[in-house]
Design goal:
Layout (H helix, E strand, L loop, with lengths): L6 H5 L9 E5 L3 H13 L3 E5 L2 H11 L3 E5 L7 H11 L4 E6 L4 H9 L4 E4 L4 H32 L9 H13 L6 E4 L6 H10 L8 E5 L5 H9 E2 L11 E2 L1 H4 L4 E5 L6 H13 L1 E2 L8 E2 L3 E6 L3 H6 L5 H7 L2 E4 L10 H16 L5 E2 L1 H9 L5 H15 L4 E2 L22 H19 L4 H8 L3 H10 L5
Length: 467
């Protein structure tokens, strides 16, 4: 039987009073129609497919909560349908129907992701009881996910350390973008925390319990990278003795984080672009595409716009990736966040290493705030870990950071010999420290500095201090 789902049925969304959406997959038209009528009468939205190919097409539009599937289907049977349906819709429930109930069939169905099975002829009361049980379990799971999502939303962006204006702006942007499914491009120097931002976005997504799958595009050879992203089918190449699900399919409705996206070769860029535009992937060696629902969050420390200008990066892919761009500032541009970062990172290393280090002294904080940190937060984190490992006492001092000890505590640098530059640098460092001590309260900072508030604003503008 061909697909007998009407266009109205295919496009119809779940009504307010609906008990759920059910897709019936059966090639016996009389049985399918009877089940459809019964389920609609019981308050469900129902659709019908007569074969596996139609079922996959309808499922992509109808998005059923449960699939009621016959084992025996023309062409692709019900068990193989599970292999193709569930990777794309891992949260869909499946209730198999069979006229030939055997232990082997039942085990095979469960192994491939079905939740239950039912014998023909179908007894409606038994069918309804099984559907109610399965959908009840689904509701409980979703309620649990909703509670966890609320928890994630309460702590998501807040787990990004720093109260500087730059970080406050980033947290605000994450709070707006996180609950959407839009693609995001995160830019910034190495070590600024791009993956942390990606995880914060995922924590706020509609389904935070779905997978967060990350891959470094620069660390994997191109042919292996495509295999990891798109998957392959059995026999696609020597050694491919089984199907392999790629990240885009395995993520379900979760997040795929593509780090170092600027390192993709042009050939892979073209394949990634097609996956994003068509929302489907073609595994290596496959002849049929698989729909994907994953959100893409990409990150790079390269200037992709500049790469596009010289034809080293596809413009169409760049525009698809950066629906929203989050630009992370280097640590040197938010030195006021360093005291809080030191506290958080130090506590983590003390806990993991089991050392009796309770804090750092003021001289060390000043030294850390004056350091250039070319490796950004990652370099600061490594320096603190090394200091905790080698520390002799409970309080870290400048002596515990031998690589940084040459930095003058007042902010002077050896290549700034003229008096005007030295005074300007000292003034900049001093104002930054006072603002940090005041929690960026400019009125309090002006009082401590012995300046009027308007004079402080002029100084901030003169020294290019952004608050």
């Amino acid at each position: 039987m061909n697909n007998i789902l009407s266009e109205v049925e295919a496009e119809r969304s779940t009504e307010a009073g609906s008990r759920g959406r059910i897709l019936i997959v059966d090639d016996e038209q009389l049985i399918a129609s009877t089940l459809h009528e019964f389920l609609v009468d019981e308050g469900f939205d129902a659709a019908i497919a007569g074969d596996a190919r139609s079922a996959l097409e309808i499922a992509a539009k109808f998005e059923p909560d449960l699939v009621l599937c016959d084992v025996q289907l023309p062409g692709i049977d019900g068990l193989e349908l599970l292999d193709r349906l569930l990777p794309a819709r891992p949260d869909t429930l499946v209730l198999m129907i069979t006229a030939y109930a055997t232990v082997e069939n039942a085990v095979a169905a469960f192994q491939r992701g079905a939740q239950d099975y039912l014998m023909k002829p179908v007894i409606f009361d038994e069918l309804l009881a099984k559907i109610d049980r399965l959908l009840g379990m689904r509701r409980l799971m979703r309620e649990n996910q909703a509670l966890r999502r609320q928890t994630h939303m309460a702590v998501g962006p807040a787990t990004l350390v720093g109260g500087s204006p730059a970080m406050a702006s980033i947290k605000s942007l994450i709070a707006k973008v996180g609950p959407t499914r839009s693609n995001v491009l995160i830019t910034g120097e190495s070590g600024t925390g791009k993956e942390l931002v990606a995880r914060a976005l995922h924590a706020l997504c509609p389904e935070p319990e779905s997978p967060f799958l990350a891959i470094n595009c620069a660390a994997i050879p191109n042919d292996l990278l495509e295999n990891q992203l798109f998957g392959h089918v059995r026999g696609a190449f020597t050694g491919a003795d089984r199907d392999h699900v790629g990240l885009f399919v395995a993520a379900g409705r979760g997040t795929v984080f593509l780090d170092e996206i600027g390192e993709l070769p042009l050939a892979t860029q073209a394949k990634l672009l097609r996956a994003i535009e068509m929302k489907e992937v073609l595994p290596v060696g496959a002849v049929r595409t698989i729909p994907i629902k994953a959100r893409i969050v990409a990150a790079t420390n390269r200037d992709l716009a500049a790469a596009v200008a010289v034809d080293r990066y596809r413009a169409d892919l760049y525009y698809r990736l950066n629906v929203v761009t989050i630009e992370l500032p280097p640590l040197r541009d938010r030195v006021e966040d360093i005291p809080e970062l030191v506290e958080v990172l130090l506590n983590r290393h003390v806990r993991e290493l089991g050392k009796r280090v309770t804090g750092v002294d003021n001289a060390t904080i000043r030294m850390l705030m004056n350091a250039p940190w070319k490796g950004n937060v990652r370099e600061l984190d490594n320096a603190l870990e090394r200091a905790v490992i080698l520390a002799e006492g409970p309080i870290l001092t400048p002596l515990d950071f031998p690589a940084l000890e040459r930095i003058d505590l007042d902010g002077g640098e050896s290549d700034r010999d003229d008096l005007r530059s030295a005074m300007r640098l000292h003034e900049l460092r001093h104002i930054r420290r006072v603002l940090a001590d005041c929690g960026d309260d400019k009125r309090d900072a002006a009082r401590r500095l012995g300046l009027g508030l308007s004079s402080l604003y002029r100084k901030l503008e003169e020294l290019n201090i952004k608050i």
